[in-house]
Design brief:
16% strand; 17 helices; Aldehyde Dehydrogenase, Chain A, domain 1; alpha/beta; 6-stranded mixed beta sheet; 43% helix; 16 strands; 480 residues; 2 domains; Aldehyde Dehydrogenase, Chain A, domain 2; single chain
Length: 480
């Protein structure tokens, strides 16, 4: 039995308990609808300590859930990213909470206007399994910074980490401020049907559609962080070995189980095998062994492992060429749920690998004749969460960035836009809606209230009845 299967499932939260927590938090919010800067900083400090002081606990629990998860990847991509996000928010929070003055029309002078960013109220966050701690902590930090109460639904696929996070939250926060619920589909349905003031869901596109439908009954706004088939386009003028090294390094992070992972690589026709050789060489350099290497992450569970193996077999049967980066001929026991870095070319659209997000260490290699053709290929498919373009020519780079519609993008590297907190992170179309990170997360979990402030002495009389010659003159000037 795998470690993942052997973990005891945490106690499931009933729909009634979900509703009780929501009502409790809503009542608490109504008593304090605009927490002060000090209160928000205190909530963020508590989250910072929760993450920092439990680094090793998170490393162990996530490794337990995956069966094998690189400890260093957990420290970097879970603990490190979460702490850096909180630091960034705390350093800018006072400025984000200010109420800036805005211009009014000349006809309203000397009236003024401003914007108040108010907390929404009670926010629901549905956390995925692939980065279970970080993808709980980063939206939580944004919601707390905006002054909200929060209920998180942790993934049932990472029971050890979910139970740990739930226990730590109970120790740090009162349940009317932050609460964690545990369980499977029934708990998730209870979350999506509760009248939250916003729901953030991270996960599969099909499930995102269900969340959107359920939330619509309460007119609950939804932020969807989904994913899709993210392309990397390599221009022939860019050093292929450099691009291959950066692509495969990003691809093998968490064994490809990331919404911003590279799904397929586009290279100029005739360069497919050269790319695969370069990427394979770099993968073997990074992981000289894989079967017993604790830094080479396993697939999360048997179901996802079987899906990837089945999709590879489907591609093989339909004529694809499949190349494994396994220079030492290691034998990968299915019970380990590890899959070597695998490249697939001669891909056709009827293959399962070409239709759905792969979410594993498998990379499709697609040829193109011109950059315009590559852009057309990307634009003819559902809009992905990320695009990666490798080229040192600024004009061509701008052409690709402006000529393709994707949630995010990176130039001459991959994945790192996700941890750049000064820019928004989010999808578009099939890859999601809404955005968070940094100030964008603060805004996503806030209501921006526009306020008009009339002056004691004003010109309103010039456009009010009775409509005399002054009103007619002002009207003509306004619509000139």
């Amino acid at each position: 039995m795998s470690k993942n299967q052997g973990a005891l499932a945490p106690e499931e939260t009933s729909p009634e308990q979900v509703r009780r927590l929501f009502d409790l938090q809503k009542a608490a919010f109504l008593k304090n609808p605009y927490p002060s800067l000090q209160e928000r900083r205190a909530a963020l400090d508590s989250l910072f300590r929760l993450v920092k002081e439990n680094e090793e606990n998170f490393v162990d629990s996530i490794n337990h859930d995956f069966g094998c998860r690189s400890p260093q990847e957990t420290r970097i991509m879970e603990v490190g990213v979460a702490l850096e996000d909180i630091r960034h928010i705390k350093s800018h929070l006072a400025g984000w909470m200010r109420t800036p003055r805005k211009l009014t029309s000349i006809w309203f002078w000397p009236a003024t206007a401003r914007v108040i960013r108010q907390p929404l109220g009670v926010v629901g966050i549905i956390v995925p399994w692939n980065f279970p701690m970080m993808l709980a902590a980063t939206p939580l930090s944004a919601a707390l910074a905006a002054g909200n109460r929060v209920i998180l639904k942790m993934s049932e696929h990472t029971p050890a980490t979910s139970a740990l996070f739930a226990r730590l939250v109970r120790e740090v926060y009162s349940e009317d401020q932050v609460a964690v619920v545990l369980g499977g589909p029934e708990t998730a349905r209870a979350m999506t049907r509760a009248p939250f003031d916003r729901i953030l869901y991270t996960g599969a596109t099909a499930r995102g559609v269900d969340v959107l439908h359920a939330a619509a009954d309460n007119l609950t706004p939804v932020t969807l962080e989904l994913g899709g088939k993210n392309p990397a386009i390599i221009h022939p003028d860019f050093p292929l070995e450099t691009a291959a090294a950066r692509v495969i390094t990003a691809k093998l992070l968490n064994a490809g189980q990331s919404c911003v992972s590279v799904d397929y690589v586009m290279v100029q026709a005739g360069m497919e095998e050269r790319f695969i050789q370069a990427a394979s060489a770099h993968a073997s350099k990074n992981y000289p062994s894989m079967v017993d290497n604790p830094d080479y992450t396993a697939i999360i569970d048997e179901r996802h492992y079987a899906r990837i193996i089945r999709e590879l077999e489907d591609a093989r049967e339909k004529g694809a060429t499949i190349v494994e980066a396994n220079p030492y001929g290691e034998v990968f026991d299915p019970s380990s749920r590890k899959i070597p870095p695998t490249f697939v070319y001669n891909v056709t659209d009827d293959m399962d690998l070409a239709k759905e997000e792969i979410f594993g260490p498998v990379t499709l290699v697609i040829p193109y004749d011109s950059i315009e053709d590559a852009m057309a290929y990307v634009n003819s498919r559902p809009r992905p969460l990320a695009l990666y373009y490798f080229d040192n020519d600024k004009h061509r780079t701008e052409q690709v960035l402006r000529g393709t519609v994707t949630g995010t993008a990176a130039v001459n590297d991959a994945v790192w836009q996700f941890v750049t907190f000064g820019v928004p992170f989010g999808g578009v179309g099939h890859s999601g809606m809404g955005r968070y990170h940094g100030e964008y997360g603060f805004a996503e979990f806030s209501h921006e209230k526009g306020v008009f402030i009339q002056s004691r002495f004003n010109q309103l009389w010039t456009v009010m009845p009775p409509y005399d010659w002054i009103t007619r003159l002002v009207t003509r000037l306004m619509i000139r």
